[in-house]
Specification:
The structure is a single chain. The chain has 318 residues and is mainly α. The protein contains twelve helices and two strands. Strands 1-2 form a two-stranded antiparallel ribbon.
Length: 318
Amino acid sequence: MPNSSSISEFLLLALADTRQLQLLHFWLLLGIYLAALLGNGLISTAVACDHRLHTPMYFFLLNLALLDLGCISTTLPKAMVNALWDTRHISYAGCAAQVFFVFFFSAEYCLLTIMSYDRYVAICKPLHYGTLLGSRSCATMAAAAWGTGVLNSQLHTANTFSLPLCQGNVMDQFFCEIPQILKLSCSDAYLREFCLLGVSASLASGCFVFILFSYVQIFRAVLRMPSEQGRHKAFSTCLPHLAVLSLFLSTGIFAQLKPFSNSSPFLDLMVSFLYSVLPPTLNPIIYSMRNKEIKHALSKVLQNVHYYSFNKVHICLT
């Protein structure tokens, strides 16, 4: 039987059997990837360039967009290359990198928790907003979220790839993820990873309790507002965050409730697609849909791009 020391590469799931379907999957994944790149890239550029968006809420949104860019760039490009060149191979180091950055997606949960705290302070303690969420505090909280993601990913990746692999190197997934690697491990060798997953689940539960407490206080404060316009404005600032949070939690919970063993490859594929591709693609759409400040900043960015492009073309022609 092969062991982990003799495995130099893994074989990922082929998305289709025929060449026509492979090319169709390539163009579909390319469209999704470009949409995610464009959406998160525009959000990042708008927040970075517009001084009116240099506030704690948009600073955390910038971090969320950058995180989404990194996470979706971990899985889709390799899947597109495999579909285009009709191959299934991924190197051992490439697989470890995918596991690390896919699990780094847990930092998004930390950022969403911090963003709920931002909304709590803005609505429940507006007079202390500048003090509690100063530039240094925001940078510290963002660094803590990224650091937590790095530490969490490092622990899980190191532990997973230290397990002896006795069941070959074929995965029923279009990217490397921990459950698929655990299926390749020797019997009872994956219990350490389950212990780490339990610790991560406990931390995630703590974040969920904090988010729940924050929104209970927010709703109580909003319902006590005498002005209907004030209530509407307060709710409108929370709705995008609630939508993104619900999307993240629903896809994550659905992935965790999926049976670890005896699940069909199609179900594994759909669940992994939901939690790894859907949030990074839809998050910028959700945040910009009803946000006038984001829309105004994006229109300025697009106008500047059009202006500089027009001038460049004009100079080249003359």
